[in-house]
Amino acid sequence: MWFKNLKLFRLSPSFTLTTPQLDALLAKEQFVSAGAAAPLSIGWVPPREEDVRFAYGVGRQVLCAYRTEKKLLPTTVINQFAKVRAQELEDQQGFKPGRKQLRDLKEEVTQTLLPRAFSLARDTRVWIDPVNHWLVIDTASASKSEEILTALGKAIYPFPVEPVHVTISPTAAMTDWVLGGHGPANFTVDQDAELRAGGDKAAAVRYVKHALNSDDIQKHIKGGKQCMRLALTFNDRISFVLTENLDIKRVAAQDILDQPEQNMPADANEQFDGDFTLMCAELNQMLSALLEALEEKVVIAKAA
Fold first, then answer.
1. N or C: which end of the chain has fewer CB within 10 A?
2. Is there a contact between 27 and 49 (Cβ–Cβ < 8 Å)?
3. Is the pLDDT at 300 greater than 60, yes or no?
4. What per-residue confidence (pLDDT) applies to 17?
5. In 130-247, at which residue ranges do the beta strands (DSSP E only) sit?
6. Whole-number pLDDT of residue 219
7. How far apart, in whole angstroms, are the C-alpha atoms of residue 166 and residue 62?
8. DSSP label at 135?
């Protein structure tokens, strides 16, 4: 259940909704399939199939899920059917259809084919931490995170959230860490990185499973390239890739999910709650340490 990608945002201390209150608000914007003729359906769903809550709380940590259902209708298929219809229309009227007629034909074909198209549903999980003031979206897509923020703003108005602001840019910090051969306190530099030059050409060099203390890398950095992506590990417990936009990707727990057999949870509910609690605790430590290294501009006081 661990998040694979982290889009980070800060919750304002003005966010005081309880989990039941949040659940009721999300339920008003719940997912309902718009039917066979609709290309897109969106809305909130319970993050666990076994549970009816839209805001699933464990302690003061909250998990939500946003569903997007799209009809898979390739443009090539639409064009193929529209071409046949255009030929039929040409035979009927004795001349080729104009641009407006072709556009109308494509719309007609699309509406005809939509009920026969396959549907693809995808859930995106959201972690809300009102204690440490995090909003974390499990996605690598900027457009998806914006879509979910918009959906949260629709369900919860006003929704007090803002981007994370740091004094030291991730690019400058990662370049210094690679150049110095080590990360900030409690972080180790791993063997994946991307160096990129500035300017229009933007030449890039990528290293995968490659020692980053080589003379070649040092020359690239001294020649003007900067580190745009860097693999790091926090306390030998969580590995991830940090990007120039402060996105965190490829998150992976390092042997901290393994439990002795005598400590195994009694049922699936206990297992899920335990995994979620562990993820929140570990990621909170990692995120706090990372933003401390990057000197977050606005430090929001933790709730008591």
1. C
2. no
3. no
4. 94
5. 134-137, 161-163, 187-196, 204-207, 226-234, 238-243
6. 87
7. 25
8. E
Percent of the chain with pLDDT over 90: 58
Residue 94: per-residue pLDDT: 79
Residue written as token pair 């359906």: 41
Q: Retrieve residue 19's tokens.
A: 């989990």
DSSP 162: E
pLDDT at 18 over 50: yes
pLDDT of residue 234: 97
The secondary element (H helix, E strand) that includes residue 36 is: none
The residues spanned by each domain of the chain are 7-73+116-163, 75-115, 170-293
pLDDT at 301 over 50: no
CB atoms closer than 10 angstroms to residue 263: 7
Check: CB of residue 225 under 8 Å from CB of residue 203.
yes
Question: In the predicted model, what is the mean pLDDT of the chain?
Answer: 87
Q: How many CB atoms lie within 10 A of CB 64?
A: 26
Q: What is the pLDDT of residue 281?
A: 95
Q: What is d(CA 294, CA 301) in angstroms, rounded to the nearest whole number?
A: 17
Instruction: Residue count of the chain, please give it.
Output: 304
Distances (CA, A) of 107 to 78, 84, 91: 9, 14, 20
pTM metric for this prediction = 0.82
Beta strands per DSSP E along the chain: 7-11, 40-45, 56-58, 61-72, 118-129, 134-137, 161-163, 187-196, 204-207, 226-234, 238-243, 248-253
